[in-house]
């Protein structure tokens, strides 16, 4: 619907869809409403109706995430920083927030090297119940302190639907981890939360399942979704996961949503992170998310894949050269 459509005009479109035998769904985005009439409604009957801005068809099962829906590509504002639109976003920080000192040893350094968003897990989805589970709210507070000091907005994971409100009080972007990509109640809740969402690909999810997970967030009222490829399970054990860089151009053709890459969680080993970061830039990703720790050997989570602050600085220098070749810059 157009941004000036009235409630009556919206109701007329809904009635028209119902009269055609479809079950329309009204989606309220911050600037305007949408009426999703699935599956395969005859769009022609809606064009020309008062308040209708555009009628968009979709050849696939996802409508709002489909490229046809927004040919110009989505741009997501994260705490004043723009993701998408030809920019290249670098998100960096520790896998898990461990202490004030640990964050202080990493966040200011990555900020001065060019990272524009900070990452850090306060609520950690650990495979083993005996592993460090994160500092919880205290971790969020410590990140907020670093945001005040460095200006970097916060990207952090939320694990449970009932924590979305709490995490959204501190975070500028809510991360949905690979293990939760198909946690539908969680997707619905972040759809309603008003904060941008970083949606990681499930480690065993197809591209279509990933886009349908994004569709859940979009249809529950949140247009600000960034996708993150983080590696998938294959038969190959020499890296933690297999980074599916093919998915970047594939998803960009299928969807208007920005796509970033997490080489750290895919690699599982620090020496693989730099080459895969450069590769992500070369294949057209909209950014990367990188684990950085000043003492990887003693990290409480995922130390093996963390690069050190000096390694990160060198990586940023090399990255600028690859981006220049693709006529982009770290922004
Ligand atoms: C993370 O980024 O901290 C994380 C747990 O990643 P993933 O969900 O991709 O494993
Ligand atoms: Mn991790």
Summarize the structure.
The chain has 331 residues and is α/β, with parallel strands linked by helices. Helices cover 34% and strands 14% of the residues.
List strands and helices in order, with pairings.
Elements: H1 7-19, E1 25-28, E2 33-36, E3 76-78, E4 81-83, E5 89-93, H2 100-113, E6 117-119, H3 137-150, E7 154-157, H4 164-170, E8 173-176, H5 184-191, E9 197-200, H6 207-219, E10 225-229, H7 247-254, E11 259-261, H8 263-267, H9 270-282, E12 287-291, H10 309-325
Parallel strand pairs: 5-6, 5-12, 6-7, 7-8, 8-9, 9-10, 10-11
Antiparallel strand pairs: 1-2, 3-4
Helix pairs in contact: 2-3, 2-10, 5-6, 9-10
The site of manganese (II) ion has 4 residues, from loops.
Polypeptide structure, described:
The chain is an alpha/beta fold and 331 residues long. The chain folds into two domains: 7-55, no CATH class; 76-325, TIM Barrel (Alpha-Beta Barrel), CATH 3.20.20.70. The chain is 34% helix and 14% strand. It has ten helices and twelve strands. The strands form three sheets. It has an eight-stranded parallel β-sheet. Strand 3 and strand 4 form a beta hairpin. Helix 2 (100-113) runs parallel beside helix 3, helix 2 (100-113) packs parallel to helix 10 (309-325) and helix 5 (184-191) packs across helix 6. It starts with 6 loop residues before the first helix and ends in a 6-residue tail after the last helix. Phosphoenolpyruvate binds at residues 95, 121, 125, 157, 177-179, 200, 230, 262, 265.
């Amino acid at each position: 619907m157009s941004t000036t459509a009235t409630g009556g005009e919206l109701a007329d479109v809904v009635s028209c869809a119902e009269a055609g035998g479809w079950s329309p769904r009204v989606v309220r985005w911050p600037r305007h409403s949408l009426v999703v009439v699935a599956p395969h409604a005859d769009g022609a009957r809606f064009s020309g109706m008062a308040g209708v801005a555009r009628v968009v068809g979709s050849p696939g099962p996802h409508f709002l995430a489909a490229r046809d829906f927004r040919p110009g590509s989505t741009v997501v504002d994260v705490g004043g920083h723009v993701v998408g639109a030809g920019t290249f976003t670098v998100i960096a920080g520790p896998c898990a927030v461990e202490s004030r000192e640990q964050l202080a040893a990493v966040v200011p350094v990555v900020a001065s090297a060019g990272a524009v968003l900070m990452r850090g897990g306060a609520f950690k989805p650990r495979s083993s119940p005996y592993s460090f589970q994160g500092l919880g709210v205290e971790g969020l507070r410590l990140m907020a302190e670093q945001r005040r000091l460095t200006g970097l907005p916060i990207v952090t994971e939320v694990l449970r639907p009932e924590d979305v409100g709490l995490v959204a009080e501190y975070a500028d972007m809510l991360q949905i981890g690979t293990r939760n990509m198909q946690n539908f109640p969680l997707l619905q809740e972040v759809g309603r939360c008003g904060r941008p969402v970083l949606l990681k690909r499930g480690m065993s999810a197809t591209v279509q399942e990933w886009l349908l997970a994004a569709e859940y967030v979009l249809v529950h009222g949140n247009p600000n979704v960034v996708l993150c490829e983080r590696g998938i399970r294959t038969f190959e054990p020499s890296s933690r996961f297999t980074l599916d860089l093919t998915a970047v151009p594939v998803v960009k053709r299928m969807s208007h949503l920005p796509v970033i890459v997490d080489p750290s969680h895919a690699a599982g080993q620090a020496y693989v992170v730099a080459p895969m970061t450069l590769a992500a830039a070369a294949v057209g990703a909209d950014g990367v998310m990188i684990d950085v720790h000043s003492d990887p050997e003693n990290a409480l989570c995922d130390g093996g894949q963390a690069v050190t602050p000096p390694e990160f600085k060198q990586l940023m220098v090399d990255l600028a050269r690859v981006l220049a070749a693709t006529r982009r810059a770290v922004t």
